[in-house]
Amino acid sequence: MTPKFRYKCANCDEWHTDIPALVFPHPAAYYAISKWQRLIRVWSTPETCVIDNRSFFVRGNLNISVDGLVERLAFGVWVKLTQKDFMTFQSLLETPGRENHAPLTTTLANMPKGYPKENLAANLNFLPLPARPHIKLEPVDHPLAVEQRNGIDVERLRVIVETMLGRRQSD
To answer: Burial level of 17, CB count in 10 A (0-12/13-18/19+)?
Structure first.
């Protein structure tokens, strides 16, 4: 029997059965800068963000499998790169065959709600165009890394989605 997944959306107050993409529009460091300072200090696109010409971020997907479901939970998060690796990323952004490039070493730049705040090392793995890169956390004991490695059940998925979307309610 296939497990059932559903959650009540805090925005529309409707019940949904799809797994929403949980997306961070910007890296956490972006929000530490005032709205007016961002105009001067931040350069960003949908895939990249540079702060003060010394902090370099790119967007990727951190996926977690869900027991019994084909669909995965996807966190659209940002990772921090060195300047050299950021330039490598830029050069491969639209390059066919980029999936053959070695992963880039990064640090997670967003922490989903409900997880301990910690700097987590990760690898940014290129996928074939047009897919966003895949983020694979290092095998540590942090709950997010454990869940990425081992997967989660449908009830844990519901808790994560409702926590991230601002409504924790049981059905």
So the answer is: exposed
> Which amino acid is located at 21 in the chain?
A
Residue 4 maps to a domain: no
pLDDT digits (tens, 9 = 90+) for 26-75: 999 999 999 999 999 999 999 999 999 999 999 999 999 999 999 999 99
Q: Say if residues 78 and 56 touch (Cβ distance below 8 Å).
A: no
Query: For residue 106, is it within any domain?
Result: yes
pTM value is 0.89
Number of domains in the chain: 1
User: Residue 81 carries which side chain, given as an amino acid letter?
Assistant: L
Please check whether residue 161 lies inside any domain of the structure: no
Question: Domain span at residue 73?
Answer: 20-151
